[in-house]
Amino acid sequence: MQRLFFGIYGAIFISILLVLSISYFALSSINQYRYQAHLKELFEGSSLLIARGVARQEVENQTRWMSLASSLMNSTIQVNPLAQEAEPGLQITPLNETSESGSDGRFQRYLAIYNSSAEQLQISVQFEGITEHVLSATAFFMLNEIGRVAPKERQQMFDEIKQHFSYDIYRAKQADLDLDSRQQERLLRGETVVSVRRQFGQGLAFNVYAPWGKTEDALVMGPITFFDPFPPHIAGTVLGMALLLMALIVMLIIRKLGNRLIALQAEVDAISPVKIGLEQEDVDTEVVTALSNKIQKMATRIEKLLDDKAYMIRAVSHDLRTPISKIHFRLEALTESVGHDNKFIRGCHDDLRQLNLLIDELLTYEKLSEKQAIDFKPIDISEHIRHQMDGVGVIYPRLALNVSVEDDADATIEANDVLINRLLENLLHNAGRHAKSCINVLISQEPYHIVVTIDDDGVGIEESALAHLFEPFFKVDNSRTAGKGGYGLGLAIVKQVVMQHSGDVVASNNTLGGARFTITLPIRQTQYE
User: Where do the domains of the chain lie, and which CATH numbers do they carry?
Assistant: First the structure.
């Protein structure tokens, strides 16, 4: 479940980062282009005025005039002859220079190149966007350009120059201007006033007011809006594209999961005879619903098959009792005729006992596999171990049997004494069959568990067999089991008993060269309910 969660979460997280990165670079590229276009619109009129001012100067006065213009605009102005291949008009190019602090790394300076075909000049101006210096100088150059012509021609000149500006420029009475008293005073003193105001629905904007000569009028420029990097139509478009891209990525993730679910359904169909048709394109919640229905029906069928298997095993096992009993009876009758010392009769009795043992183990394993509710009570597992060791000592008197309790551990646990006895009997008798000289049992305690370790010094278990040792009817084909008999159900029963007690059992090899079985059982069963 965690792997699935982190897989889906990681895919969505990476998708979000990808969408954000694409959106960021797309918006940055769009805004870079928009900002240069914005500057071109705002700076075109100023560039025209500078070009006209330079063109009408004599060669010896151009340097002085450009120095004055550079000082007014707080920019670097250069004049070069117009190349023949240059196209008339204004070009705005960002310079690869950062601000003085250098903290943001963005383009701060721009190069405006105005090619004037009429004056045959190329004017290059480096500036930092549209600033108060640029706007004040623009108003000064405009009034200066208009003042050069006769009064009757000034309106025509004014109308001609206005066509090169992207914002409003007009003449108005100073008394009608929306200025505060301080700004009115500055205007009366002949100063140019630049104010910043918030325009309704447009954000911040410049407004420029300059005295119109000695009249009571003023030149008004603006509003000149600030550049808006997130206008509604751009932001909406980028957001819509980001959501669309995110939807496509999520759809691909869901489709991939859906394809895996459809493949899983095919595997379920191969197990269950119940077929539920589902098209490839139906990768939505119906896939989960259909798969859930299939799994439920398959689980019901498997449960029925298990019940049938259990019933069959019990029925066959009990039915075998009758012919076995008849064989025993006939053998007893035959013994009266041939005598008790007949080796064939003894062999038949031994075979019948083995068959009865197999039936008992089958019934025990099947009953434990049903995982029925069992009764738990406090027991001292060390006493049960010593009791079973006494039985092993009777059968294998040559073995040294050692039981030790580590650090006086409390060996009391909540368990079913019948099942625990069966578990210990199987493991200790298994160790007795394979041990050469000794069996060592160690009881230790963990915070919530009792650990029982059973070691023998017989032949160890092959590493390849350890993973299958507790499977029903699995027998290790090596010298450890050669001639030892058994049907491969003893350790499977041990595993079932441990599982009934919410514990664990692990097989390994010990330092003595033999096998080690480590049983971990909870001290209290209520902790695991």
Answer: 2-232 (no CATH), 377-528 (3.30.565.10)
